[in-house]
Amino acid sequence: MKQISTNVKIIDASQGTTLGVAGDNYRVIISGEQTGNTYAVFDMLVPPGGGPAPHQHLGMQEFFYVTEGELTFKTTAGHQKVTTGGCVQIPFEGGIHCFKNESASMARVLCTVMPAGLEQVFALLGQPVKPGEFLPPVEITSDIEDKLKRLNKQFSQTIYPPDYLD
């Protein structure tokens, strides 16, 4: 008889580490450590004007589901506004992409990455914050540029200039 797993986890809204990353808040709901590095899940709060620089992850796929507000997703194919209930799938070895909150309201996104690993990037770039606390975007200094270059190499990603997809 096949044994059924009983290791179901229920994660409360107050659980997980919240990191301030580039002016946004990313709560690590499920880390790669919990999934054998098969995937990780984030609750992303993106204030007006927020969002990451254009970037590309090799060896990873991403899925974004907008749960509140709206974001403009930018790719080499163009720009598309995605509102509550909309999703974006960046395929494995996917292209250059970013998102920006161009509205006057907070946006919230559920993001899943496969395999896991992006939470390690966020931990190395970000700072722990309390829920509702937002840090200002970081000024890009030569030290930060050097750190990004090391992270890009370590995690097979590339970060492009902010206006790359405009």
Summarize the SSE layout with pairings:
Layout: E1 17-21, E2 24-30, H1 32-35, E3 40-46, E4 55-57, E5 61-68, E6 70-75, E7 78-83, E8 87-90, E9 97-100, E10 107-114, H2 118-125, E11 127-128, H3 142-154, E12 157-159
Antiparallel strand pairs: 1-2, 1-11, 2-3, 3-10, 4-12, 5-8, 5-10, 6-7, 6-9
Describe the structure.
By secondary structure, this protein is an alpha+beta fold. The chain has a single domain (17-128, 141-159), classed as Jelly Rolls (Sandwich), CATH 2.60.120.10. 15% of the residues lie in helices and 38% in strands. It is built from three helices and twelve strands. The chain has helices at residues 32-35, 118-125, 142-154, and strands spanning 17-21, 24-30, 40-46, 55-57, 61-68, 70-75, 78-83, 87-90, 97-100, 107-114, 127-128, 157-159. The strands form three sheets. It has a seven-stranded antiparallel β-sheet with strand order 8-5-10-3-2-1-11. The chain has a three-stranded antiparallel β-sheet with strand order 7-6-9, with no helix packed on it. Strands 4-12 form a two-stranded antiparallel ribbon. A hairpin with a 2-residue loop joins strand 6 (70-75) and strand 7. It is globular. The protein starts with 16 loop residues before the first strand and ends in a 7-residue tail after the last strand.
